[in-house]
Design a protein that fits this description.
single chain, 8 helices, about 150 residues, globular, alpha/beta, five-stranded mixed beta sheet
């Protein structure tokens, strides 16, 4: 069963798709409360860096390191090297991933640095990405740097 926080990340991904973007969403949770949420906005903002996790961090605003060290970040897709770097930089100790079937990010790097990584294999997340990749392969390849 998908918990409320992964459901919020999926809602963000769906919002991104409705905006004409790439359907990847993320939320940052501190002590049971969402403090930041976002979705991939590269297309919408003409951005090189606004992946779902980066948008969620941006929307969380400036937080002390002590807050990030108590957070969990939920993301609908396995985090890429840029987003994994941000997770490490801010010391977020746990990442819950909707799926890693359509894209395997830097999960091993995160684990090697002591981050707890949990993959829930959400059918909804998988189907969302599979449909998007099939319809927009060029845009998808651009997003992952290929």
């Amino acid at each position: 069963m998908i918990d409320q926080f992964m459901q919020a990340a999926i809602q963000e991904a769906t919002e991104g798709l409705k905006e004409g973007g790439i359907p990847i969403g993320s939320v940052i949770v501190h002590k049971g409360k969402i403090i930041g949420k976002g979705h991939n906005r590269r297309v919408q903002k003409g951005s090189a860096v606004l992946h779902g996790e980066m948008d969620a961090l941006e929307n969380a605003g400036r937080q002390p390191a002590s807050i990030y060290k108590e957070c969990v970040i939920y993301t609908t897709l396995s985090p890429c090297s840029m987003c994994s770097g941000a997770i490490l930089l801010y010391g977020i100790p746990k990442v819950i991933i909707g799926e890693n079937k359509t894209f395997m990010g830097e999960e091993e790097l995160l684990k090697s640095r002591g981050v707890e990584v949990e993959v829930v294999n959400s059918i909804e997340c998988i189907q969302l990405m599979e449909a998007f990749i099939a319809e927009h392969p060029t845009l998808w390849n651009e997003d992952i740097g290929e």
